[in-house]
Each structure stands twice: as structure tokens, then as C-alpha cells.
Amino acid sequence: MQPTVIAPSILSANFAKLGEEVDHVLAAGADWVHFDVMDNHYVPNLTIGPMVCEALRKHGVTAPIDVHLMVEPVDRIVPDFAKAGASIISFHPEASAHVHRTVQLIKSHGCQAGLVLNPATPIEVLDWVLEDLDLVLLMSVNPGFGGQSFIPSALEKLRRVRERIDRSGKAIRLEIDGGVKADNIAEIAAAGADTFVAGSAIFNAPGSGKHGYAEVIGRMK
Ligand code: DX5
Ligand code: ZN
Fold first, then answer.
1. What is the mean pLDDT of the chain?
2. Is the pLDDT of residue 81 over 90?
3. β-pair partners for 8
4. Where does the record place the catalytic residues (predicted)?
5. Domain containing 133 — which CATH number?
6. Taking the model in full, what pTM does it have?
7. Which protein residues are within 6 Å of ligand 1, measured from CB?
8. Within a 10 A sphere around the Cβ of 170, how many other Cβ atoms?
9. Residue 90's domain spans which residues?
């Protein structure tokens, strides 16, 4: 199991003050920045692209940027995100014609590669590709929006994927995304996750701003 990572999803941040918001969550103890890219095609929402990633790097963000691509097709945006400073790039197998090729494409651009499983995507999609991955991201909500409730079947899925990762003997992270809160994170960690995305639970925490963020991230850790 890898050391625990808390990755605030900036989807729930105040976009008018994005640089400041990212500085504040990192100062509050966050480890990574989770960067949700939605294209109004693979998912109904429309968010941010490589220019915003690059702007965060220019602003001085040195923490890993964990790019979650909810775009279709996926391959043509990969080089742009690598150039913009992405550290990890994850994608949905449904959005790639050739999953193995997309994994290799991400790595050939110097980034770590992750595969994202929607709540109803069977874990067999990991067959033949697991050992090439740096990260498996399990969705515990349907992708597209922040602030949804954690789908309980994700716990059993976490256990099963944890088993497969352990059996592989590789240092592959197991990330969970959707509905993660301070009061369910212990149960999620016990099921095998080591990397936790949280958007609304952090950015909408009572008394938000620097102190609110530190309080909720501290409780999660
Ligand atoms: C949903 C995104 C998530 C989302 C999580 O498609 O991938 O990263 O921002 O938000 P919360 O933590 O509010 O469920
Ligand atoms: Zn995400």
C-alpha cells in the first residue's frame, strides 16, 4: 500500500480565485491537485483544459497535478496536458478506442498513467493492462458533477481491485473519486483506497478558506 494522498478536486473551488484556492488547500495539507476535465460530450458538464493547468504551474504550483480526463476521444488532448505540466493523466476506457495505446501514449509523454472505472464498469477492464498502470481510479459516483453521494457498491469494488493490485506486486495507486467525506473516509480506506479525491467536502467545508480547509483535511488524514 502506498502512503496516503489527499487530492482536493478543484471542480468545487472558486474558479475566480483558482490560484489562491490551490495555494490554500496545499498549505492546508493536501498532497495533490485533482483536475477534472469535462467536455460536454463524454459527460454533460464542461470545465477546464490544458491552459488552466499551465496557468497553475506558472502560478508556482509544484505539487503533483492529477488530471482526470472525462473527454472523448482522449488521445489528442494527452500531449497538450503533458506540455501543460500534468503529472498523472487518467482516462476512461469507454473514451479510448485502444486502451493499451492510450496508456503508452501518456507514458511516452513523461506522465504517469491511470485508468478510471465508472460505477458500472466491470473490473475485468483491468485485465492485460493493470501492470502497465501507475494508478487505478474508481468512481464512486457517475462522472460529471461534484457534490453527489457515495455509491456504496464502490466499497466491494475497492476490495476486489486492492486484491488484484496486491497480487500484481506493483506499486499501483488505488484512487477513489466521488462523495468522499471526513465521515466515510475511514471505511473507504479500510476497503483498500490509498488516494482520496474530495471536492465538495473540502471546498464547501464550513468556515471555508484557509482554516476550514486545514480542519477538514486534517480530519480526513
Ligand atoms: C466527478 C469528478 C469528481 C468530483 C468529486 O465527475 O470526477 O472529481 O469533483 O466531487 P465530490 O467530492 O464533491 O463528490
Ligand atoms: Zn475526478
1. 97
2. yes
3. 198
4. 36, 177
5. 3.20.20.70
6. 0.98
7. 9, 11-12, 34, 36, 68, 141, 143-144, 146-148, 177-180, 197-201
8. 12
9. 5-220
Q: Measure 153 CA to ligand 1 centroid, in angstroms.
A: 17
Distance 80 CA to ligand 2 centre (A): 19
pLDDT tens track for 114-131: 999 999 999 999 999 999
Distance from the CA of 118 to the center of ligand 2, in angstroms?
Answer: 11
Distance, CA of 108 to CA of 85 (rounded, Å): 14
Reported confidence tier of residue 63, pLDDT bands at 50, 70, 90 = very high
Q: Count how many domains the chain has.
A: 1
- Taking CA atoms, 9 is separated from 26, 34, 104, 128, 180, in Å, by 12, 4, 25, 29, 11
Is the ipTM above a cut-off of 0.95?
A: yes
The predicted-structure confidence for 143-199, as pLDDT tens digits, reads as follows 999 999 999 999 999 999 999 999 999 999 999 999 999 999 999 999 999 999 999
> Measuring from atom 6 of ligand 1, which residue has the nearest CA?
143
Residues identified as active-site: 36, 177
